[in-house]
Structure formats: C-alpha cells, structure tokens
Amino acid sequence: METVLTDIPWALILILLPLGGGMLCFLWPRMARVFGLITAAGVMLSVVGLGWQLLKNGVYHHQVGGWGAPLGIDLYADGLSLLMLIATALVGFGVSLYSIGYFKPEKAIHFWPIWLFLLAALNALFLSADIFNLYVTLEMMGLAAVSLTALTGSREALSGAMRYLLATLLGSLAYLLGVALLYHGFGTVDIALLGQRVEATPYLWAALGLISAGLLLKTALFPLHFWLPPAHASAPAPVSGVLSALVVKASFYILLRLWLEIFEPIVDGEGIETLFGLLGVAAILYGSVQALRQTRLKLLIAYSTVAQIGYLFLAFPLAAAAGVTAWSAVAYLAISHALAKAAMFMAAGNLLQFGGHDRITGLDRVVQRLPLTAGAFALAGVSIMGLPPSGGFIGKWLLLEAALTQGRWDLVGVIILGGLLAAGYIFKVLGHTFTQAEVTHQSTEVPAGMEWAALLLAVGAILLGFLAAPLLMLVGIGDPFGISEIRS
Amino acid sequence: MNWNAWLPLLVIVSSLLPGLIIFSLAEQSVRLRTMLNLAGALTSLALIGWMLWGVYHGQHYELRLALLPGLDLVLRAGPLALFFATLSSVLWLITTIYAIGYLEESPHRSRFFGFFSLCVTATIGVALSGNLITFLLFYEMLTLTTYPLMVHRGTEEARRAGQTYLTYAVFGGALLLLGTVWLYTLTGTLEFTPQGFLADLGVEHHPALITIFALLIAGFGVKAALVPLHGWLPQAMVAPAPVSALLHAVAVVKAGAFGIVRIVYDVFGVEFASELGVTGPLAWLAAITIIYGSLRALSQDDLKRRLAFSTVSQVSYITLGVAIAGPIATIGGVVHLMHQGLMKITLFFCAGNLAETLGIHKVSEMDGVGRRMPWTMAAFTVGAFGMIGAPPIAGFISKWYLGLGALDAGQIWVIYVLVGSSLLNATYFLPILHRAWFREPSGSWPEERDFGRKETAWMLLLPPVLTALMAVGAGVLASAPFSPLEWVRFIAQREFYQP
C-alpha cells in the first residue's frame, strides 16, 4: 500500500486532473458543478499523496517525457512548493464548495472551466523547475484570473478587469525579458543550474531588475498595488477570494524562489533587501490606513490584502541573520492569509448577496441573520489581526522574533502597528454585528454551502495556529531556504 | 498512558464543548441548554476538585503540545493555577444559575450562553497556562469572547462601550505580545518557573528586562484596570448583570491581576524583581489606583458605576500585595484574588436583582429597599462590609495580611494607603446601606415586577446569598484546611518561596 502511494506520480495528477476536469466542465456544462467539486476534492487528495511522497523520499524531481533539464519540462517539489500546493488545494476546495451555490447557471458555464484551468495553472506554477515554465504558468494564471474578474460583466467589473489585464500583461512581459536575459547570459533556464552558473554580470543585474519589477507588479506590492483594489473588489466573491488568497501569492512565490536560489547568493549588500523591506513597510501602513477609511466591505478587504502582502516582504531584510525564522514566518503568513482572506471575501459575498449591498454601516441588519457568516468573518479576522490562536499569530510571532533578535526596532514597530490597524478595520466591521436594527429590506436567501465554505476556511486559518510544528517540518523538506548550506 | 497529563485539557474541554454545542442550539431549547451548561460546570468543578486533592498530595498534572519549534503549549495544574481555576469554575456554576434566571425570555440566549462558556474556557485556560505564550493565547481569547457579552444588549451605548474595551484590550495585547517575544529572544524559554527564570541573565540585559517588565505589566494592567489604563471598566457596566458580575469578579479583571502575579513570581521571580527595582514603582501604581478608584466611586450615583470604580480600587490590592514583595503581603494579595471575587460578585448580583425586580439603577432610588428585598440587601450588606474590611468577612483577612506584610517588609506607607482606602470604602458603601435599611421607601419603585410573596425569582436570589455565605465562610474558617487562606499559604510555600 505504501509503495503504491509513493509511486503514483502525484505531481502530474495535480496538473492534469484540474485540466481534465475543466475540459469536462466545458463539454458537459450541466454537470459542471459535480465535476468541479470532484476535481477540487481530487486535488486535495493528490496533495496529501504528494506530501506523503515527499516525506518518504525527500525532494521530488520528475522529467516529463524523459527529456531532461535544458530541453524538456521538469517538475520539482520541495517543502515550499508543498506548502503552496496545500494552500491552493484547501482554498480551491473551499472556493468550489462556495461556487456551487453562488453562480447562477448562465454564469456557471463560464466559471467552472476557467476556474479549473486556473487551478491547473497554479499547481503547475508551484511545481515548475525552470524559469520559462514559470513564465508560461504565470501567463496562464494571469489570463484565467482576468477572465474570472470580468465574469459578472458589470461596468465596474469590466474596468477593474481591464486594469488588471494591463498590469498582469506588463508584469509578465517584464518577467519574460528577464528570463530571456538570464538564458542569454548563462545558457540555461533550469533554476538549479542557474543557481550554480550565475555571476554578478550586467545580465544578472538587468534580469534581477526586470524580474523583480514584473513580479512586484503582479504581487501588487505598494506602490504597484493600484490595480488590486478595483479588481478584487469588483470580481465575484469566490473569484476575489482566489485572487487575494492564491494568485498574488503565486507571483510572490516565484520571486521568493528565484531570490533564494539565484539572486541572494550573488547580490550581497543590503540594497535590494532594504528596498523590499521599505516597500513592505509602506504597504502595511498604506494598505491598513486605506482599509480603515473604506466604507464598503469588499474594498476594505482588498486594501487589507495590500497591507498583508507587505508583511511578506519584511522577511527580506531580516533573512540575512535570521533566515530560518524569517522565511518560516513568510511561509506561515502566506498560507494563513490565503485561508483567512478567502474566507473573508466569501463571507463578504454572503453578506452582499443577502443584503444587496456591502456598506459597512448598514451591515447590522444583515449580519444578525447570518450567524455562520459573521462567525467566519470574525475567525478570519482573528488570523488577519494576528491574534492567537491562529496561523496569522504564528507568522507574526516568528516575524517579530526575527526582527527582535536583530534589534530591528523599526520593523518591530511596524509589525505591531500593522496589527493594531488591522484590529481597527476588522472591528470596524464586527462592531456592527451585535447592534439591533429593524429588518427593512428584502433579503435573498444564502445557500448553506456558501456559509459553511466560508466558515470552514476560517476555522482552517485558526487551526493553523496549532499546526506550526508539523507544517514547518514539512516546509523544511529539501531545505528550500538554503539554511543548512549557510550553517555548515 | 498517563491520564493525569490530560486532566488540565479535560477541564478546558468541559467548558469549551458545551459552549460550541450551545451555539448550534435553537433559541427555544432551554432545557437542553441549561443541562449542557450545568453539566459542563459540574464536570469542570469535579475535575478541579480531583486535581486539588492530587496536588495537595504531591501529584503533577502537566500537558505539553508542540506549538512552534522549541516552544510548547503547556497546561499545568499547580497550586496557584488551581486556586484561580477553582474560583473560575465555582463562580461559573453560580453565575450560570443567575444568568438563566436573569435572561429568561430575552432574545439571543444561545449566543449569550455560548460566548459565556467560551469566556469561562478562556479564564480557566489563563489559570492553567504553564508558560507565557499559552497565557497570551488564552488571554487574547478572553478579550475576544468577552466582547460579544459586553455588547450583548445591542444598544448604541453598548456598542461604544465595546469599542472602548477593544481599543484598550487590543492595545494591551500588542504590548504584551511585544514583551513576550522580546523576552523569548533573550532567554529562549517562557516557562513559568518558581522564583523566575531571569536571574541568571547578565547585567547588560537589565535595562531590557526593566522595559519588558513595564510592557508586560502595561499589557496586564489594561485588564486589571490599573490607573491610567482603567478607562474601559466603568463603561463596560452597560453589559447585562451576570456578565458584569463575572467580568468584575473573575474573568477579565482577575485575569489581568493573575497575569501580574505570574509575571512577578514565575517569570521574574520576586527577589530578582525587587533587585531590578521594578516592584517599588508597581506598588506605588497600585496604591494610586486604590485611592483613585475609591475617590471616583464616591461621586457615582449609578450603582453599577460605583461598584465598577470600587473594582478598580479593590483589584489593585492584589497588585499591591504582590509588589510589596514580602511573603506575608503576598499571601494577602493572592488570597484577595478569591476574596474580592466572592464579595464583588455578590454585590453585582444584588445590583442586578434590584434592577431586574424593581428597576432600581441609582443609589438615590434605594431608599428603604431593604424592607422590600431583605435577602438581597442582606447579601449586599455582607459584600459591602467585606469590601470595607470588617471582620469576620473575607476582605478583613486580605487587608490584615496586607498590613502585616507591609510592616514585615518595612513599608509603613502601605498602612496609610490601606487605612485611607478602607475609610473611603466605608464612605461610599455605608450611605447605600443606610438608605436601604433606615430610610422610608419613597412610595413606588421605578419599574416593579411582581413575584407574589417572594421578593424575587429564586434563581436570582440564591446566587448572591450563596456567594455572601462563602465570603463569610472564607473569613470565619480562614484557618480550616482547604480554606482560601490555607491554600494560599500552601502556594507560597510550594511556588513562591521554595528553598
């Protein structure tokens, strides 16, 4: 039994299953919901299989078709890939469960094929071993994400999607130019090989600049975040969830991966780390303050994403001296934010559907009749604020620890302040949960599945607070942060 | 398999599980809800009783679960932990009975009792925490679970009070988090240890340690309502009476005070803390809070507000006892954790009865109420005299030990603070008693409800009478085995001043 489990090519299944599922949804639109949910469940099981495989055999490396590194497509999975795949599978299942109730049939025929295609692109991205495949998957992901954003067809959605399209294309283009430079300069696109070959030549610097700029744009790091709030706020709720939870994390993952494997060993000196750190600080402060000022719930959540992305970049300046703690913090923040933010957008979607609006001051009438949704929002909020027990707390704890061991009081201050501001905007919403108000409007029923999907993901974000020890052990598979090399 | 290790977790589950189930119950299933509540409270009481007996006879109850690499979640039922846990679970049981009577027929009861159980879970978790990060976890959980109770009424006033509370609590939590992580980066451990774990740290770390002490005390001081961090407490009296009772007697305020006890004794160690010179300022801060709270209480006409300021003042006796840093004062401070709880919960129950039965909210409306509600006012009188420190009620024991401890530590000024505060207590409590017993009723009550020949519903009457009896019992039987005082002596011997 065990050997069977470890021998199945789970990584391939992770890519092919959603592709096939998407195809089926396209061919039999009536059965799309069934296929969609089964696919999402299958993806979850496959991730479990892959995790098992990694635990038994260590890092996974597979040459598709047996072509080998420079020419063929290589799949690669270590602890960091696994973590992102886990996040994708969990959020993916939650989103699928939610979407069954959310989309009316005429929208559903478009939604399911594109969504499963997006899922395949995400999985492929996290499994890619070379920078060109990363580009292909990044582009697939971006286009699918833009299509989903435009799905409602409203004016707001279309203009949001348009901006998003331009940003994502520009980002990929810059990234592709960087890839071309690296290939030209060092003769390979394989990440591991590049890691051995790169030297501090102008090619490398130009590539670093282009790749960083492109990926920062796609990750929506301040001040390149301008496209995110309109796109995330105007998309359908489950799509907003996917965009905030997974899509921005995917481009961040590429940046992190390339930084760790290729650039960090060469680019010594503090310039770039410091810049990333500063932008992270600015993102936290600007995003949180903007979130506090919003009067509409979905925009508030979108700006919260801008702020939360900032935290991921605080690790760069901290990593030099406290590598394992800082990068573990990033990994943990990324997965916790994925679950919590998806839950939050879904909860907002429920409120919007039930009450017909998402003005925060008018929410009391709505919230009281959707206790599960209110609970989901509150639990997700706990993780976003970084209060214990939650995944967000673990991430914040590790980040604070890394900052304090180096005496980086400026970053300590920002982390604490960011938490306080987050509490401010979360409780701004929750404060309206308990006030009494007359029910004056027509309400639309919210299917139970939508309420439970949001709640399940939020509970997941809380449970992450108790799973740090095993999860960080998993992340350590294959030593993605290159810690043991430095130490030995 | 060592079952003893799982007992602390079982105590927590015994209140957590009923809470979670209650959320899912329909509003009408009163009987099932009541049974769940009582079953949870009785189970946790029985488990704690079992562990009290075990600890007295040298058993250890400790559970460790890995939280982060190198950092565990620790639940440990030591003598001090059980002392606070006992208070929580006893008062939980009594308050549950009271709340069932109080909230009869009001809306959102499932929500109320759900959060009520979670709140108790957090308090017992705070009690049983074996290290600072576990403490932090339950402490924040307490913040989050009391908020819905505080705003339960759903009025605009309640919402504002809730926001104020959160502002204070979240801010305090942030300071606490900062202090905790900082401490961890210096020491690599957060384990509560008798006599602390910091004494070995080099002198160069002392400025950092002093700052950490300030951060942690400020973090706990918010809940313990140390001046100037007390602002939320008087506002929080908009909550329903059982919530105020629990809040002031055990849950929130005491969790803060208990945190201060833990910091001084089990993190810094009392000797090291006085070596650092941080206990002196803490004692002054506590003294200022004691006097300030009493002074403010004098001018309040709203009964619950007056009681709230009285809490501000009384809870700082605990801090004061801890900060005097002598063995006898410690006993006075820690035992006050229990004594103040019993007396203050009595007073709040009584205030709730007056409001619920006669619609009385203000001191000025209380003329002659003793004749209409003799049992309630008798309990109130016991509580009030206890607060003043009249023997043989529990409050006297606390003050006696605080005074003796201050003399023992050579800090005469504390005696003046104690005398002054007792006088002030008398000044704001005796007029209430005078009105209630010796003045003629003014005619009709603001909003009277009819209970036939009884003065009020038995579920409202029984709890204050019980707690009042316990307050008297804790004073009269102070030297009986397993009395609060004797148990605190046992704690001091085992945990604080171990050779």
Your description of this structure?
- The complex is a heterodimer of chains A (488) and B (499).
- Chain A has 20 helices and 2 strands.
- Chain A is an all-alpha fold.
- Chain A has a domain at 271-488.
- In chain A, a hairpin with an 8-residue loop joins strand 1 (60-64) and strand 2 (73-77).
- Residues 484-488 of chain A have low confidence and may be disordered.
- Chain B has 499 residues and is mainly α.
- Chain B has one domain.
- Helix content of chain B is 72%, strand content 3%.
- Chain B has helices at residues 7-23, 30-56, 79-102, 109-128, 132-150, 156-187, 206-224, 232-235, 241-249, 252-268, 270-276, 279-298, 303-324, 327-358, 369-372, 374-388, 394-408, 413-438, 458-476, 484-496; strands at residues 62-68, 71-76.
- Chain B has a two-stranded antiparallel sheet.
- In chain B, a hairpin with a 2-residue loop joins strand 1 (62-68) and strand 2.
- In chain B, helix 16 (374-388) packs parallel to helix 19.
- The radius of gyration of chain B is 21 Å and the shape is globular.
- Chain B starts with 6 loop residues before the first helix and ends with a helix.
- Chain A binds chain B through residues 371, 378, 382, 385, 387-389, 394, 396-398, 400-401, 404-405, 412, 416, 419-420, 423, 427, 431-432, 434-436, 466, 468-469, 472, and chain B through 23, 65-69, 73, 111, 133, 136-137, 140-141, 143-144, 148, 151-152, 154-156, 158-159, 162-163, 166, 170-171, 173-174, 177-178, 181-182, 184-185.
